[in-house]
Write a structure and sequence with these properties.
The complex is a heterodimer of chains A (402) and B (659). With 402 residues, chain A is of the alpha+beta class. Among the domains of chain A are: 169 residues, Up-down Bundle (f41 fragment of flagellin, N-terminal domain), CATH 1.20.1330.10; 88 residues. Helix content of chain A is 52%, strand content 16%. Chain A is built from seven helices and 15 strands. In chain A, the strands form five sheets. Chain A has a five-stranded antiparallel beta sheet. The longest helix of chain A is centred in the last third of the chain and has 61 residues. Chain B is α+β, with helices and mostly antiparallel strands. Chain B has four domains: 99 residues, no CATH class; 281 residues; 89 residues; 102 residues, no CATH class. Helices cover 44% and strands 22% of the residues of chain B. Chain B contains twelve helices and 27 strands. In chain B, the strands form eight sheets. Chain B has a five-stranded antiparallel beta sheet with strand order 12-19-14-15-16. In chain B, strand 22 and strand 23 form a beta hairpin. In chain B, helix 1 packs antiparallel against helix 12, helix 2 runs parallel beside helix 5 and helix 5 packs parallel to helix 6. Classes of the chains: A alpha+beta (402), B alpha+beta (659). At the A-B interface, helix 1, helix 2 and strand 5 of A face helix 2, helix 3, strand 20, helix 10 and helix 11 of B.
Chain lengths: 402, 659
C-alpha cells in the first residue's frame, strides 16, 4: 500500500494521542480509586451504585433511629426498674401491716413510709428524657403527666399516644409507653373482678380475692353476697346487679369456696347476719390510687374484731391491686426489655447489611488496583513505544541521501 | 535530421521541466490540507512522415492530473459528517452526565440529606433544632434543583448559540462554494483546474463537518450541494443561506430556515448529520427529556410533601400548610403552556398537575381543528386525548387522567390550525422553592388524638388512625378543635354509635362492630370526618373512645413518620419508582445515552481515520516518491540537454565539412 508522508505524521500522532487519553483515564481512576467516574463510564454499574448508595443511606438512617429509640428505652427501663423497686417496698410494708403483732401505731409508721414512697413513685412517673421531654406523657411532651387534683384524685394529663419509629426495612418499634398505659390502665382486684366487704359489716368475715374457675360460665356483674340465717345456721345468698337471686340461700361454711356464674370466692371468719360482700367487675385503678388506698388501709383503727376484719379485707384487696399494678409495670418493663433486644438485633442486622452493601459498592465502583496499575504501566510502555517509533520513522527520508 | 533531434530534445527538456515543476509543487504542498498530489501525463507527439517512414517527434505534456478517487473522497465526507454529529453530542452529553451524578452538584445527595432531616424530626418531633434542620433542608433541596435547572439552561443556551453560529458558517461556506463553482466553470474549458478543485473539495469537507450533505457534479464542472431531505444549498454559482429564527412554538429554541432572497423554508425537522444534526439531536433527545424528568421528580417531591404536611398539625397546634411552592400556582400553570406565535385565535390556557404519579417525560402539542382539541405526544407523535371546545361559561377545566394533567380553558376561542405546546414538567425543577415560612409550621404531628376512656371495661384498643382530608368541615369549621369532637360509644359488644362529644347528640347510630377484628369505625357510607380510626379487641357496652383535636401534641411523630416513609414509596411513573429511583433513572439514562454517543464517536472516528487514510494513500504526497521523481526528471532533463549538445555537435560537424 502506498503511504503518503502526512499519513506517517497523522497516524503516528493519532496513536500517541490515543495512548495518552487512555493513560490519562487510568491515571484519573487511580487518583480517585474509582472505576466509574461518570455514569457514562458504565451506565449499568452506575444504576447499581445509585441503588446501593440509597440503600446505605436509608440503612444508616434506620440505625440512627434505632440508637435514638434505644436511648429512650434505656431511660424508660431505669424509670420502670426504680418504680418496681418502690412498689416492691410498698408491698413489703403492706405485708408487714398484716402482721397480727403490729399495733395501730406500728401500722401508722408503715403508712408514713408508704406516703413517702407514693411521692417517690409520682416523681418517677414524671421523669423527663434527657431532662427535656416527659417520658410518660404520650405525645404531650411538654405536659407533666401525673398530677393530683384538689380532691386528691390522681389525674393523667398526657395522652395515649405511642411514638412509632422505623428501625429496619419493614420493622417498626414503639419508642415510648404512655403513662396511661403504664400506670393507669390497670385492672383492680384479680383482673376480672374485685371483692370487697361492706364497710358497715359488723361480723369479722373476711373475703378472699377469688378467681374465675369457669371462663365460659363467667358472667360479669355487680354481685352481692348477703349473710342470712335460718335458725342458728348462717347462710349466704348471692344477688346480681338487678337484685335477683343467683344462688342460695346456702349454708355458710367457714373458709369454703362460694361458687356461682364461673366465680369462685372464699369467705372465712364469722360474718354477722346482714353483713354483705361485693363482687364487682374489675375497673381501671391507677397505681397511685392503689398506693394511696394502702395508706388509708394501714391507718385503720382496729379496736373491734369487725374493724380488724375490715383491715384484713382492706389488706387483701390492696394486695390484689398491688399485684395487678406490679404485673402491669413488669409487663411494660418486659416490653421495654424485648424492645431493647429487638433494637440491638436490628442494629446488628443494619450494620451487617451496610457492610455487605459497602463491599458490594466497592466491587462495582472501585478499581482493581493491581489491574489498574498493570494497565497503567502497559499504557505507559505503549506510549513510549509510539513516541520512539514515531521519532525514528520521522528521520527516514530519501532526501537525506541526495 | 538535426532539426528533428533538436526538436525532440527540446520537447523532452520542456517535458522534464514541467515534470520537475509539478514535483516541486507536490513537495511544497506536502503539508497543505486537502492537497491532492499531481503528476504529469506525457504523450508522444504525432510522428512526422518523411522518406516513407514515420519519425517520432518528441514528447508533449498531455495533462497535469490530480491523483484523486471520487469514491474515497465521498466516504471521507460522509464519515466526517457522522463523526462530528456524535462528537458534539458526546461532548454536550458529557457535561450533563458529569453534573447530574456529581456528589456535590447532583440532586441525589440533597434528596438523601432532606430525608435524613425529616427522619431526625420523626425521631425527636419536639426538638426545635431538628425542625431548624428540616427547614434549612427544604431550602437546600429547592436550591439544588434550581441549580440543576440553571445548569441545563446554560447548556441549552450554548446549544442554541452554537446552532446560530453553525448556520452562519454554513451560509459563508455556501457562498464560497458558489464563488468557487463560478471560477471553476470559467476555466474548465481549458482543462481541469486542479488546485481550484482541491479547494472546492476542501470546502465540501468543511461543510460536511457542520451538516450532512449530498453533492452532484454538473457537466459544466460545477458541483451542486444539497442538505436535509434534498433542499439545495448551492446550485452552480447560485447559493442559499441558512438562518435561525425563534421557533413559533418555543421562542427559546431556534428553527433553521433556508433562505433564498425572500423565500424562506423551515427545514428544522429535516436537518441531519454534522455538528448541526448532533446539536439538534442533543436538544430534542437529551436536553428536553432531562429537563422533563428532573422537573417531574421535583414536582413529585413538592406535591407529596405539601399534601402530607397539610394532613398534619404543626408546633403551633395549627393544621399544616405547604412546605414547597404550590405546584398549581397560577404562574406555574400558565408557564406550562406556550402559545404558537402564529395562532390567530385568542384562546388562553393553563395546565394543572392533578396526579404526579401519572406524569410522563414528554411534551404535548394541543391543536385545534373543527371544534375539537387534540393532544399529541411530541415524542411519539401519537394522539393521547381529544375533547370538544367547551360549551358554556369559561373557565372550564378538562382532566387528562392518563397523563395526570388538567387543561383549563380560561378565556377566548381558538381558530382552526391554532396550536399550543404543553410542557407539564419542564419547569418543575426551576419552580421548586420553599414556601413554609417558619420552622414551627412543619407538621410533625397528627391533628387528631384518640383516648380510650378510663372507665372502659372491655379490651377494645385503638390500633391506628389516619387523617385523609384536613379540608373536611370537621377540621376547618374552627381552628384548633374538631367540629364536632367525636365519641365512639359502644352500645353492646358488637354495636356502637358515633356521638358528638360536646352535645352528646348521636351522629351515627347502630354501627356494627366485629369483636377481636380490626374495625374501621367510620366505614364508607357514614359521615366523613376526614379521618378514620381502627379499633380492635372486644369492647364492652358502655365503653367509649374520644376523638379530639391533638392540641399540645408536640411529641407526636405520626405525620413526620409518614413523611419519612415517602422516601421508599413509589410515587413516580405510575407507582413504580421512588423519588431517588426516579432521579437515578434519569442519571442512568443520561449515562447510557452519553456512553452510546461516546461509543459511536469512537467507532466513527476510526471509520473516519480509515477513510482519510485511504484518501491520503491515494492522493497524499510521499516525499520519498517525489525525491525519486526529482532524480528521474533531473536525469531526463540532463539527458535532453545532452541530446541538444549532440545536436549542436552534429551541426558543427556538418558546418565543418564545408570548411
Amino acid at each position: 500500500m502506498r503511504i503518503s508522508t502526512t499519513q506517517f505524521n497523522t497516524t503516528g500522532l493519532n496513536s500517541i494521542k490515543d495512548q495518552m487519553s487512555g493513560l490519562l483515564k487510568t491515571q484519573n481512576q487511580l487518583a480517585t480509586q474509582k472505576r466509574v467516574q461518570v455514569p457514562s463510564d458504565d451506565p449499568v454499574a452506575s444504576a447499581v451504585i445509585f441503588n446501593i448508595q440509597q440503600q446505605i443511606g436509608i440503612t444508616t438512617r434506620l440505625t440512627q433511629n434505632a440508637e435514638g429509640v434505644k436511648n429512650f428505652a434505656q431511660q424508660e427501663e431505669i424509670a420502670l426498674g426504680s418504680s418496681t423497686n418502690v412498689l416492691q417496698r410498698v408491698r413489703d410494708l403492706l405485708i408487714q401491716g398484716g402482721n397480727g403483732t403490729f399495733s395501730d401505731s406500728d401500722r401508722n409508721a408503715l403508712a408514713d413510709e408508704v406516703e413517702q414512697r407514693l411521692l417517690e413513685l409520682q416523681g418517677l412517673a414524671n421523669t423527663k428524657v434527657n431532662g427535656i421531654e416527659y417520658l410518660f406523657s404520650g405525645f404531650q411532651a411538654n405536659v407533666k403527666p401525673i398530677d393530683q387534683d384538689s380532691s386528691g384524685t390522681f389525674i393523667y394529663n398526657g395522652d395515649q399516644g405511642q411514638r412509632q419509629v422505623q428501625v429496619g426495612t419493614g420493622v417498626t418499634v414503639s419508642a415510648s409507653d404512655s403513662g396511661f398505659d403504664t400506670f393507669f390502665d390497670i385492672r383492680n382486684g384479680n383482673g376480672q373482678f374485685s371483692t370487697s366487704a361492706n364497710l358497715a359489716n359488723t361480723g369479722n368475715g373476711v373475703i378472699g380475692s377469688g378467681s374465675v374457675y369457669d371462663t365460659a360460665a363467667y358472667l360479669p356483674d355487680n354481685y352481692s353476697i348477703q349473710i342470712t340465717t335460718t335458725g342458728s345456721q348462717l347462710q349466704y345468698e348471692v344477688f346480681d346487679g338487678g337484685s335477683a337471686s343467683v344462688t342460695g340461700p346456702t349454708n355458710y361454711v367457714d373458709g369454703q369456696a362460694i361458687q356461682f356464674n364461673g366465680i369462685s370466692v372464699n369467705l372465712s371468719g364469722t360474718p354477722a347476719v346482714g353483713d354483705s360482700f361485693n363482687i364487682d367487675p374489675s375497673i381501671r385503678q391507677d397505681v397511685f390510687t392503689t398506693v394511696k388506698n394502702i395508706v388509708d388501709v394501714l391507718r385503720t383503727n382496729t379496736s373491734t374484731p369487725a374493724q380488724a376484719a375490715q383491715l384484713q379485707n382492706g389488706l387483701n384487696q390492696s394486695l390484689e391491686n398491688m399485684d395487678r399494678a406490679m404485673d402491669k409495670i413488669s409487663q411494660v418493663q418486659a416490653r421495654v426489655g424485648s424492645r431493647l433486644n429487638v433494637l440491638d438485633n436490628q442494629i446488628a442486622i443494619n450494620t451487617d447489611f451496610n457492610l455487605t452493601n459497602t463491599s458490594a459498592l466497592s466491587k462495582v465502583q472501585d478499581i482493581d488496583m493491581a489491574e489498574a496499575i498493570s494497565r497503567l504501566s502497559q499504557q505507559q510502555f505503549g506510549l513510549e513505544a509510539a513516541q520512539q517509533s514515531f521519532a525514528r520513522i520521522q528521520n527516514l527520508s530519501l532526501f537525506n541521501f541526495l | 535530421m538535426a532539426v528533428g533531434v533538436l526538436g525532440n530534445a527540446i520537447s523532452g527538456l520542456l517535458g522534464a521541466q514541467a515534470a520537475l515543476s509539478t514535483t516541486s509543487h507536490n513537495i511544497s504542498n506536502v503539508s497543505t490540507d486537502g492537497y491532492t498530489r499531481q503528476n504529469v501525463v506525457f504523450g508522444a507527439r504525432n510522428p512526422v512522415f518523411s522518406g516513407g517512414n514515420f519519425f517520432g517527434s518528441g514528447t508533449q505534456v498531455d495533462d497535469v492530473r490530480r491523483i484523486f478517487d471520487k469514491i474515497t473522497n465521498q466516504e471521507v465526507i460522509n464519515n466526517t459528517s457522522t463523526y462530528n454529529q456524535f462528537d458534539i453530542f458526546s461532548e454536550l452529553a458529557g457535561q450533563i452526565d458529569g453534573f447530574l451524578a456529581d456528589p456535590s452538584a447532583g440532586a441525589s445527595p440533597a434528596i438523601q440529606s432532606f430525608f435524613d432531616s425529616i427522619n431526625g424530626l420523626s425521631n425527636d418531633p419536639s426538638s426545635v433544632g431538628q425542625r431548624e434542620v428540616v427547614f434549612n433542608q427544604v431550602q437546600i433541596l429547592s436550591t439544588r434543583f434550581n441549580n440543576l435547572s440553571s445548569q441545563l439552561d446554560a447548556i441549552a443556551n450554548r446549544t442554541e448559540s452554537e446552532i446560530g453560529g453553525i448556520a452562519r458558517q454554513i451560509s459563508t461556506i455556501s457562498s464560497s462554494l458558489a464563488e468557487m463553482n463560478r471560477n471553476i466553470v470559467a476555466v474548465s474549458s481549458f482543462g481541469a483546474p486542479n488546485d481550484l478543485l482541491d479547494k472546492r473539495d476542501q470546502l465540501l469537507n468543511q461543510l460536511s463537518q457542520l451538516i450532512d450533505i449530498s453533492t452532484f457534479d454538473q457537466a459544466d464542472g460545477s458541483t451542486s450541494v444539497f442538505i436535509g431531505t434534498g433542499q439545495s444549498l448551492v446550485i452552480g454559482a447560485q447559493f442559499n443561506t441558512l438562518e435561525t429564527r425563534p421557533s413559533a412554538l418555543d421562542p427559546k429554541q431556534s428553527d433553521l430556515v433556508l433562505t433564498n432572497g425572500t423565500t424562506k423554508v423551515n427545514i428544522t425537522s429535516s436537518i441531519a448529520g454534522g455538528k448541526l444534526g448532533g446539536l439538534k439531536d442533543f436538544r430534542d433527545n437529551m436536553l428536553t427529556p432531562t429537563y422533563n424528568r428532573l422537573g417531574k421528580v421535583a414536582l413529585a417531591i413538592a406535591d407529596n410533601f405539601n399534601k402530607q404536611n397539610q394532613l398534619g398539625m404543626d408546633m403551633n397546634d395549627q393544621l399544616g400548610s405547604r412546605l414547597f411552592n404550590d405546584i398549581n400556582a397560577t404562574s406555574a400553570q400558565q408557564g406550562r403552556v406556550l402559545d404558537n406565535a402564529n395562532n390567530t385565535g385568542n384562546l388562553s390556557l393553563q395546565v394543572s398537575i392533578n396526579d404526579v404519579s401519572k406524569l410522563t417525560d414528554d411534551d404535548y402539542l394541543l391543536s385545534f381543528k373543527s371544534g375539537i382539541y387534540t393532544l399529541t405526544n411530541t415524542t411519539t407523535n401519537a394522539a393521547v386525548f381529544s375533547f370538544p371546545a367547551p360549551a358554556g361559561p369559561l373557565p372550564v377545566s378538562v382532566a387528562v387522567p392518563t397523563i395526570g394533567i388538567g387543561i383549563t380553558v380560561n378565556s377566548g376561542a381558538a381558530v382552526d390550525g391554532d396550536t399550543f405546546l404543553i410542557r407539564p414538567t419542564k419547569l418543575g425543577s426551576s419552580d421548586l422553592g420553599r414556601e413554609v415560612a417558619d420552622l414551627r409550621q412543619i407538621a410533625a404531628a397528627s391533628p387528631i388524638r384518640i383516648s380510650d376512656s378510663l372507665g372502659n371495661v372491655g379490651t377494645g384498643t385503638v390500633v391506628s388512625s389516619q387523617v385523609n382530608d384536613t379540608t373536611n368541615a370537621a377540621f376547618t369549621t374552627s381552628t384548633g378543635q374538631l367540629s364536632p369532637p367525636v365519641r365512639i360509644e359502644f352500645t353492646s359488644g358488637s354495636t356502637y354509635n358515633i356521638v358528638n362529644n360536646t352535645t352528646n347528640a348521636v351522629i351515627e347510630a347502630g354501627l356494627a362492630f366485629t369483636p377481636n377484628n380490626q374495625n374501621t369505625v367510620m366505614p364508607t357510607g357514614v359521615t366523613d370526618f376526614g379521618y378514620n380510626v381502627v379499633i380492635a379487641g372486644s369492647p364492652s357496652a358502655g365503653d367509649s373512645f374520644v376523638i379530639d383535636y391533638n392540641n399540645g401534641g408536640i411529641g407526636d411523630n405520626r405525620n413526620a413518620s409518614l413523611m419519612s416513609n415517602l422516601q421508599t414509596q413509589s410515587t413516580l411513573d405510575g407507582g413504580t419508582a421512588s423519588f431517588q429511583q426516579g432521579y437515578g433513572q434519569l442519571v442512568t439514562r443520561v449515562g447510557a445515552q452519553t456512553q452510546e454517543a461516546n461509543t459511536s464517536r469512537e467507532a466513527n472516528l476510526s471509520a473516519l481515520r480509515q477513510s482519510q487514510d485511504r484518501r491520503e494513500s491515494v492522493s497524499g504526497v510521499n516525499l520519498d516518491e517525489e525525491a525519486a521523481n526529482l532524480i528521474a526528471f533531473q536525469q531526463a532533463f540532463q539527458a535532453s540537454s545532452r541530446v541538444i549538445a549532440v545536436a549542436g555537435q552534429l551541426f558543427d560537424t556538418l558546418l565543418g565539412a564545408f570548411n
